[in-house]
Amino acid sequence: MGVQKLSDGRYRIFIDAGRDASGKRIRHTFVIRGSRKEAEQKERELLRAKDTGTYVDPRAGTVGEFMKRWLQSASSKVAERTWIRYEQMVRGQIIPALGHLRLGDLRPLHVEAAEAEWLRSGSRRTKEPGPLSPQSVVHLHRCLHTAMERAVKWRLIAINPVDGVELPHVSEREAAVLEPRHATRLIEGLRGTEYEVPILVGLFCGLRPAEYLALRWRDVDLDRAELHVVQSVHRIRNDRTTVHMGQEISGFRFGPTKTHRSRRPLAIPAELVARLRTSKALQSSMRLKRGEAWTDLDLVFTDAVGRPHAIQRVEGAFTAALRQAGLPAMRLYDLRHTMATLMLYQGEQLKLAAARLGHANETMVLRRYGHLLPGMDREAAERLGRLLAPEEAQLAHEGDEKPGG
């Protein structure tokens, strides 16, 4: 630490920043133009920042430079699909909005202004112009927060500037579900179509699309009419290649289910078992016809050469089936909500619905679907009222229930 006068009238300030991992002393250098008094004042400010935890490494560079370094570091620490999403957000929105700022100058006000701009008009690098949804901005907020946490751990900045910014409000989306008669119309509209069986698995079993598109024959017991959910599959870039089941495959990434609770056995209704048997026979015939061109991943649902179906194609077929049946638009994922709602309408236990969905407990089911079933709350209130009624009222009620009473 100290102030050194240079020959051209400037002053060099040395700040001791501790030691690195090898024990070598770290010394940061600042050069300013002005008087010695001004240089000494700057030194005091830097030392005060060091003491209060607000000191910034002068080598930190800009937000854009740091975000690129962070992406390189994150590539080996997160799932590939997560890293691809990070890269899209960093290059598409975060760097264009904040990349020009020095990392040490980034403040909550800058982050808040960027998020307001994303909500108002999106990003100049967004393919489709227009504002981003609050949920998209939440994802950007969390990505930036995660990156800045790494900057803190690398001791490039002392505090995370995103901590001072409130998350945008996201209205909870009400689940779209099909009524029983509409579900029947959808089933009829799907009959004989290419994606009939996978879509019906989503409806009858409540699987997520990523789960049933990764379903393997070894996980299905048609004789016992049950299946086991053990993995999921996600679309990634075509230039990314992975190895699964001993086969090299590009454009897809297989992995574990969303949570450990998502690994679950599920019973299959007889109608679906029959469709799966037919589908298996057709696939065997196709596999023989393709020969060595077939990619053997043991998948239940495949394209013409054994590869996984792209979810976008299944979604397109589902949308077309809804339109053909004269039903309102909804997401493919909403078939999962439909199964849960229909189970509860029939009086099935919350615990069973939660287990079939792969939720840890009934709380998630009640929070998401309880508002759709007001009758359940009324029946519970009436049962509680009868239980706590005066003794004579209970006797009278029991008398009313006796045959001939």
Describe this structure in words.
There is one protein chain. This protein is an alpha+beta fold. The chain contains 15 helices and ten strands. The strands form four sheets. A three-stranded antiparallel sheet has the order 1-2-3, covered by helices on one side. Strands 4-5-10 form a three-stranded antiparallel sheet, with no helix packed on it. Strands 6-9 form a two-stranded antiparallel sheet. A hairpin with a 4-residue loop joins strand 4 and strand 5. The mean pLDDT is 83.
Rg from alpha-carbon coordinates: 30 Å
Count of spatially separate domains: 4
Q: Please state how the strands of the largest beta sheet are arranged side by side.
A: 1-2-3
Order of helices and strands: EEEHHHHHHHHEEEEEEEHHHHHHH
CATH class of the largest domain: Mainly Alpha
Within CATH, the superfamily of the largest domain carries the name Intergrase catalytic core
Sheet having the most strands: 3 strands, antiparallel
Task: Tell me what the CATH architecture of the largest domain is.
Answer: Orthogonal Bundle
Q: Kindly state the percentage of residues in helix.
A: 40-55%
Question: Which regions are unreliable across 5 or more consecutive residues at pLDDT < 50?
Answer: none
